[in-house]
Design brief:
single chain, 486 residues, alpha/beta, 5-stranded parallel β-sheet, 21% strand, binds flavin-adenine dinucleotide
């Protein structure tokens, strides 16, 4: 079936003509990316302006926004994966949602190209552009990495890692080959920032909890390894709290290699820069992010790290500070000046992305009502991390350091309030209550990742067609005489 763009959207030519001949009655704001920035900008703008004042279009290949700070807990099974995402069509009332990837941006012509998962790419036009395309994993050309490792940036990856870890334990319990067991029960995480440490700690916690139910697997057979290039972990908190976390993880027998790099992992044979070698079936890469590379396919000004350059009003600016009319950017893909730390940029985290999104929604509403946009200013409130059930670390307002159970409670409280939509907040809290009463759910659903495997195996191959005498047998390269099919 031929695919056509939704009715609210014009093709480049017709839209361009319409713009020249007759200005749009309602200005159109196109938001690239329906993640933290996209979701909060769209919601705030819709709240501020009625449908007759602005048409809002959000473009994202996924039908939902992911609240990434909850991914480690989703991987540990403490939160239902469906509850760490907010579906666009439900959360974005009064907003048009287009499912597809932005593949080019021609801001000079006020057009963007959208490539849907199926069908031909098409262009849409706009009057105002918001770029909230986020980041992707920053990888390195390490032999074996692309083939063996998995990222931890979205809900699909988090759930795949959970199922894989639990599935390895299941498989190890059914084999007596010591080398195979060692390999299956070795889990390597590369990157000691927040995402890596939380993912590792949550998965180690659930793996140990799970192993209690196995007679054939001993706790000390589980080997969790963290590889970090710098001399410390959790650069987001003070050295003291980073040191405390390190100590806690080591007490849990987690092996930590600091000032160490992954050199190679061909076929799961991990080689570290210190010469340490080990075999692992699970390698999770969480060593940093970079701005979404699709921005290279745009005419927007980018800095050396590929981020869109903005001023503190979140307007896109050229290197000399000249404002690029009608373009705004925020979040992981933007270099937004941090007014509390002159000369620096806001760090790529949800704390900023969420507030920048709200601020951008307010600013756009002001601009569309012919007022001046205001500057975004936010003092970091701190960082909270969960390290497994009832364990955590937190640093609030730079000074207050919290450890253990209170930090874990703080982590859950802070993030559940930041999670968009009341519906999601309630579902998450209901899930936590259920887990406290009924214990955690640890069943691996490995087959989710290849649901057709069993059906494929059960399928009967089609019977070969009987080739009539003298007819050319299509299964044979040249002409042949007919054989009776059995
Ligand atoms: C595991 C993990 C844990 C984290 N923990 C914390 C934490 O505890 N605290 C904290 O403050 N921050 C945390 N972060 C960071 C935080 O989640 C991000 O900084 C924040 O989500 C950035 O928001 P964003 O809107 O810029 O990007 P995102 O929220 O990533 O949104 C980008 C959107 O763009 C879409 N997109 C991508 N490519 C295209 C395309 N070509 N066309 C259209 N759309 C596209 C994506 O699908 C996505 O919806 C964590 C991140 C991870 C991965």
């Amino acid at each position: 079936m031929p695919h056509s763009a939704p009715s609210t959207i014009d093709s480049v030519e017709t839209a361009a003509k319409a713009r020249v001949g007759k200005p749009r009655k309602v200005p159109r704001v196109v938001i690239l990316g329906g993640g933290t920035v996209g979701m909060y900008t769209a919601r705030r703008l819709r709240k501020r302006l009625g449908r007759r004042e602005a048409a809002i279009v959000v473009v994202d290949p996924r039908p939902y926004m992911t609240y990434a700070p909850f991914l480690p807990e989703a991987a540990a099974g403490s939160i239902d994966p469906r509850n760490v995402v907010a579906p666009h069509r439900r959360a974005l009332k009064g907003v048009d949602v287009l499912q597809g990837k932005v593949s080019q941006v021609h801001h000079a012509e006020r057009t963007v190209e959208i490539t849907p998962e199926e069908g031909e790419p098409y262009w849409i036009t706009y009057d105002h552009l918001v770029v909230g395309l986020g980041s992707v994993a920053r990888t390195l050309p390490i032999p074996g990495l692309a083939e063996q490792a998995v990222g931890f940036k979205n809900v699909e990856e988090a759930i795949a890692v959970r199922n894989h870890v639990l599935n390895r334990i299941d498989l190890a319990a059914s084999t007596w080959d010591p080398e195979l067991r060692r390999r299956m029960l070795t889990f390597v995480f590369v990157g000691g920032g927040f995402a890596g440490v939380e993912a590792l700690a949550e998965l180690e916690d659930i793996a140990r909890y799970n192993v209690r139910h196995y007679k054939q697997v001993e706790q000390d057979e589980l080997r969790f390894v963290l590889v970090e290039g710098s001399p410390r972990i959790l650069p987001e908190v003070s050295e003291e709290l980073g040191g405390y976390t390190l100590e806690q993880l080591r007490k849990r027998n987690i092996e930590i290699h600091l000032s160490t790099f992954l050199s190679s992992c061909v076929d799961g044979h991990v080689v570290l820069s210190t010469g340490v070698e080990l075999d692992a079936d699970t390698i999770v890469w969480t060593a940093g992010v970079k701005a979404n590379p699709v921005l290279q396919q745009s005419d927007l000004p980018l800095d050396q790290l590929g981020r869109v350059t903005t001023n503190a009003r979140l307007q896109v600016v050229e290197a000399d500070g000249t404002v690029v009319a009608d373009a705004y950017a925020a979040g992981d893909c933007a270099a937004v000046p941090d007014l509390y730390n002159p000369g620096q940029f806001c760090p790529p985290n949800a704390q900023h992305a969420l507030r920048e999104g709200n601020h951008l929604g307010d600013n756009l509403a002001r601009v569309l009502r012919s007022a001046e946009p205001t500057e975004y200013k936010h003092r970091n409130v701190g960082a909270v991390a969960s390290l497994g059930m009832y364990k955590g670390v937190a640093q609030m307002f730079g000074k207050i350091k919290v450890r253990g159970f209170p930090a874990w409670v703080l982590h859950r409280t802070y993030h559940v309030f930041a999670m968009p939509t009341v519906n999601r907040k309630l579902r998450i809290m209901a899930g936590w209550t259920g887990s406290l009463l009924l214990r955690r759910e640890v069943v691996p659903l490995g087959s989710l990742h290849d649901p057709r495997a069993e059906f494929r195996a059960a399928s009967v191959p089609p019977r070969p067609r009987v080739v009539e005498p003298g007819e050319k047998d299509p299964s044979v390269g040249g002409a042949s005489t007919a054989k009776n099919a059995s």
